[in-house]
């Protein structure tokens, strides 16, 4: 398979290369060629892949000659160029929010709605990180018990704002520890030892776009607009892995044991739920992990037969790079990649 | 007034002395004498108050000869000794959870249920920090619109575990920034750049005691057991101020504007809710502040006519020291402190 990464030098680009390498190593994807693209500023850099040093090129403003384009260079770049990249047959798996709500563009979490990927018209959207992590745990519950209401509060890591977000947390925390004032550039306010309930732009209804994405994208991925979803999205001073407290009202009552058993066999989920053993989802243990950790499973105190749970998922992986590569793997497994002549 | 502080050398003790000094400066409480008590380990230390250096004495195992005892030395110390401290007429305002659920002991947030304080039998309980901060915002809403369901997710600072909690965050973060592994003692897991959904002991129902306290104490303070309350309590790497995402289902529908207006005149509340101006509650701005910041007020997406909001309150102040001193002020204002002869 011939793969291209657009945005290769960013935090997600870095993870994409690692996840691709791991996919190749376990015999899932066979990467015949990897093209790396980034902004002119980063062009010329070399990045190691499969024992070779690959040179980063400037993102093309035309078709990309590859089977799969993994795009993670931001919404405006994708909006302007993704259709051109795809114009000669490449399938673009786009990590931005540019196309997620287009009726023509499948929004895919392979464990949840993989078959949707096969309906693409050149572009497949990778969901918002918070949503991708939540639905891996919520989808099996919805299928079996019917989710009526879903209330989410997030604990989002600085790498949600890319490598620069992590760098800012580290640099500014260092300053604070040495008695200096923290400044800020990537975040709206200083992030060290702070909590910022503001991610992405505010909408007219008082919710941020990040919060609305969780509602919009949960509806689209689960294929059910009737679920009432709300979210409070909060940036906290962690490096990677988004955590989420989720309260679910269910159509059919469920017990915590039933949910534990259900999620125990759910793909992409690691049930980590042993309070006595001090086991529950945390960034410390979920970071770098493919599976989303799910724990603190307990009976809701506000909805009869409802369920509360806590999830932690590495948003650079399941929330971004891993999910994108899993979409590529899904397409390959289902014979949906017509590899070009000459490869 | 003759005041004693038990636990004077802890984080809350430190705040108590500052808040008392400020109360005296603005002419509210007149402190004729301040006695400082702590464990034998800390006895003999001197702490400055009102221009004098006061010597810390060993916590007595008998009556304390004062009008008000502000106790913040942990539940087991209070449980063992508070009745003795109060046995000769001192009123004990206890910051621990030892007596909060006793029918005989009022649990008081002065802005919300001040008159309860007057019914004391020697001991008045100061609520759990998370609850105190939440009810300041929720009580006025409950009075006017009737809260049916209340779903809380917390972002709790390390100072909830006292000075040692803050010290551990700072020390261990410093280690991580210098490439070393973080260890832990005050918290169940390393706290730097981590999130720990485990505060206080797990109960049989899968909730932590911290989470249940929010339900139990909200019921007692609001005098209404019919409200359905749930909480997910999460420790995050901040120094002080607990933040909380709160979703409210209401008996009578309210609009965000109505709630903003209502809370704009509520005692103990600072409405900080201007997304365009990047104004919302944050530890960065709420720390050191008496009022609880309330913002992100918006119409619920899951409950018709319901309300979502975000609060941030300095839990060493409103969640502990300030509330305790405000109870003393309330008692004084209502002539409920019979100052002893000779003072």
From TrEMBL, chains A, B:
Residues 2-120 form the Semialdehyde dehydrogenase NAD-binding domain. It comes from the Bacteria. Pathway: Amino-acid biosynthesis; L-threonine biosynthesis; L-threonine from L-aspartate: step 2/5; Amino-acid biosynthesis; L-lysine biosynthesis via DAP pathway; (S)-tetrahydrodipicolinate from L-aspartate: step 2/4; Amino-acid biosynthesis; L-methionine biosynthesis via de novo pathway; L-homoserine from L-aspartate: step 2/3. Its EC number is 1.2.1.11. The active site is at residues 129, 242. Keywords: Amino-acid biosynthesis, Diaminopimelate biosynthesis, Lysine biosynthesis, Methionine biosynthesis, NADP, Oxidoreductase, Threonine biosynthesis. CDD domains: ASADH_C_bac_euk_like, VcASADH2_like_N. NADP(+) binds at residues 9-12, 41-42, 159-160, 315. Belongs to the aspartate-semialdehyde dehydrogenase family. This is Aspartate-semialdehyde dehydrogenase.
């Amino acid at each position: 398979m011939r793969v291209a990464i657009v945005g290769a030098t960013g935090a997600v680009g870095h993870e994409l290369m690692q996840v691709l390498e791991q996919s190749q190593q376990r015999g899932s994807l066979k990467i015949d060629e990897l093209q790396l693209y980034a902004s002119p500023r980063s062009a010329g850099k070399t990045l190691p892949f499969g024992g070779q040093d690959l040179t980063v090129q400037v993102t093309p403003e035309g078709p990309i000659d590859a089977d799969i384009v993994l795009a993670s260079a931001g919404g405006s770049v994708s909006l302007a160029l993704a259709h051109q990249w795809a114009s000669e047959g490449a399938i673009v798996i786009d990590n931005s929010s540019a196309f997620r709500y287009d009726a023509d563009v499948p929004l895919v979490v392979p464990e949840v709605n993989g078959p949707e990927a096969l309906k693409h018209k050149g572009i497949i959207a990778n969901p918002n990180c918070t949503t991708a992590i939540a639905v891996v745990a919520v989808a099996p519950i919805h299928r079996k018990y019917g989710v009526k209401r879903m209330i989410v509060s997030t604990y989002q890591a600085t790498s949600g704002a890319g490598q620069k977000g992590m760098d800012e947390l580290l640099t500014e925390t260092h300053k604070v520890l040495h008695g200096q004032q923290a400044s800020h550039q990537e975040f709206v306010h200083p992030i060290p030892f702070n909590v910022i309930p503001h991610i992405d732009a505010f909408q007219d209804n008082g919710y941020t776009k990040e919060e609305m994405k969780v509602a919009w994208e949960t509806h689209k991925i689960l294929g059910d607009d009737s679920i009432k979803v709300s979210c409070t999205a909060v940036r906290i001073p962690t490096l990677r892995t988004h955590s989420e407290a989720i309260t679910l009202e269910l159509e059919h009552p469920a017990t915590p044991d039933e949910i534990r058993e259900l999620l125990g066999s759910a793909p992409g989920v690691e049930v980590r739920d042993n309070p006595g053993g001090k086991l529950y989802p945390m960034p410390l243990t979920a970071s770098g992990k493919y599976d989303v950790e799910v724990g603190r499973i307990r009976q809701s105190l506000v909805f009869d037969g409802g369920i509360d749970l806590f999830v932690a998922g590495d948003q650079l992986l399941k929330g971004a790079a891993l999910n994108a590569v899993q979409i590529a793997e899904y397409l390959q497994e289902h014979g949906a990649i017509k590899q070009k002549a000459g490869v």
